[in-house]
Amino acid sequence: MKLGVLISGRGSNLQALIDATADPAFPAEIAVVISNIADVQGLERAAKAGIPTAVVDHKAHDGRPAFETALTATLEGHGVRLVCLAGFMRLLTKGFVDHWRDRIINIHPSLLPAFKGLNTHERVLHYGVKFTGCTVHYVRAEMDDGPIIVQGAVPVLPGDTADSLGARVLGVEHRIYPLAVRLVAEGRARVIGNAVNVDQPPGDGDGTANIVVINPAG
Length: 218
Ligand code: GAR
Description:
Order of helices and strands: EHEHEHEHEHEEHEEE
CATH superfamily of the largest domain: Formyl transferase, N-terminal domain
Low-confidence stretches: none
Radius of gyration: 17 Å
Bound molecules: glycinamide ribonucleotide
Strand content: 15-25%
Number of strands: 10
CATH topology of the largest domain: Rossmann fold
CATH class of the largest domain: Alpha Beta
Helix content: 25-40%
Structural class: alpha/beta
CATH architecture of the largest domain: 3-Layer(aba) Sandwich
Distance between the termini: 33 Å
Largest sheet: 8 strands, mixed
Number of domains: 2
Oligomer: single chain
């Protein structure tokens, strides 16, 4: 399955996907990496891996629909079947999301539907919750909303700062994004209503292929 990865910056989740897709047995390949911002680290990561890149600058387009038309043209020009948002920091219109319905996924650094939006780790610490994590979900028109494919949970530890907690969550993001892409590419993450049913592989009787839990010891 051909992937199009949309980024806006550092691209560490992109790197996790690059590393996963380097395995010939992985059921997906990255056809193009698109950034809405030039000169970001993620574009360098893609170029280093020999993956085609494009910059589609939102500021160079007259309004969101024109920007998104250019995104779709670039994605479809590379034969993309699944769009992976990986730190892509632009809101998308219903028109774009509907065009790619069930063919566009996102990673978010919280256990959705809690802590949608920005500054998740600061808010997690403010509310004193004891577990947080990250989510890969199919994208719907509302921000950080849509059927959940995989979640990873980590403890919030005494003395955590937003940075230490964010680093712990990011480590799990890098595990669950390739896992979610694999489940989608294998046709095992089926949307049923507002949820996802993950077909478990033979032998995985406990049905936890899409759940990652990190214990307090890491
Ligand atoms: C990641 O933590 C990702 O979950 C988050 O941005 C970061 C991008 O890092 N995405 C969102 O907050 C989307 N709502 P990366 O560029 O190193 O992958």
